[in-house]
Amino acid sequence: MYDVEKVRTEFPILGRKVGGKDLVYLDNAATSQKPRRVLEALNEYYEEHNANIHRGVHRLSEEATSAYEGSRRKVARFLGAPEETGLVFTRGTTESVNLVAHAWGRKELREGDEVVLTEVEHHSNLVPWQLAARATGAKLRFVPVLEDGTLDMEEAARLIGPRTKMVAAVHASNVLATINPVERLAELAHEAGALMLVDGAQSAPHLPVNVEALGCDFFACSGHKMLGPTGVGVLWGRPEVLEEMDPFLGGGEMIREVHLDHSTWNDPPHKFEAGTMNIGQVVGLGAAVDYLKGLRMENVREHERRLGEYAYQRLSELEGITIHGPTEDRTGIASFTLPDVHPHDLSQLLDEEGIAIRSGHHCTQPLMRRLGVVATARASFYLYNTEEEVDALVDALARAREFFGAFV
Ligand code: PMP
Predict the structure, then answer these.
(1) What percent of the chain is helix, strand and coil (3-state, nearest 5)?
(2) Do 387 and 280 share a structural domain?
(3) pTM score, two decimals?
(4) Digit-coded pLDDT (tens) for 241-272
(5) Tens digits of per-residue pLDDT, 97-115?
(6) Ligand 1 in reach of 171 Cβ (< 6 A)
(7) Is 363 in the active site?
(8) Same domain flag for 202 and 152
């Protein structure tokens, strides 16, 4: 039995008040809160083991290295990666995609080649490919999104062909709550001789993920959205693909031999970890992954699926509301617009009641244009949210509407 009340006691911040009201934190797609265990791991690392890694032979350096490499093993296992040599630490999803678009893209893409993305991508899985396309002459193509918030997979099958060198798609949309069939996209990519990158920023924190089962070649996610600290993320890549890639950043640790006029590279994953990494944060991410494993991702998914359904049903009671995305198989995200209130005004009024939601384009401007809106309000749930918090949200929205109605 998943005990949400017990889970809540492990997140100190959930006990705080905002403007005298209990905090209702519904901005988890932006970043998640951190359990005590992660905060303690950070503290313990700095109080007892802090040192630079890999290069030192003293005790602290060995301990720090072992904690850092231990996190690599844990995260690799968490994502179902067969070997940890494919697990590269980065600053987050954004850096992971930039790493691939740069280190793979600049080497492999040529004029006439195509990179297939979707219309629902976060800017961080779009802009790096625009830059790569500009540098190489490759073209970007886009799988359209249908009215119901799912991808047009027939069009995807037509678009992915002999010119395609990379398919890059978001696993779970940060706006529409859709879980995209990335397994099928990976099959289409491989049939065409292309590679597949999955943006897992909104899936790794919420769904059981297995990179082998997804069949992708790259998988990117962010530690801070999955209970870990900011400043650490992950790029998993197939070791044989990472092997062939050029480095991304140059500097210490990523080299084997350095001469004045040239250098040779360390083996993956170290080839992609230049300079002093975010060691403390990596250790914190290891603790976050331990915590998620302890809860079991199947339970996390089931809790959020139920909560998401409940939120969808309760929000639908608000007259005139549009909840974007599919009606079923959703993650715990609800992006919505109300006809008479601007999303920014809504989130400001909700903040006065201690309720944190987000409003804006959510770094998906092309998708906003496709939906015909400039912004949406977005409530996003996580493993510590409750039905009572959904009720608080819906009640506050109803009051906000009344408030604005008075001025119409
Ligand atoms: N992709 C998606 C789907 C996201 O939701 C986000 C974060 N909002 C990102 C990528 C970027 O993640 P980060 O800012 O942690 O690099």
Answers:
(1) 45, 20, 35
(2) no
(3) 0.97
(4) 999 999 999 999 999 999 999 999 999 999 99
(5) 999 999 999 999 999 999 9
(6) no
(7) yes
(8) yes
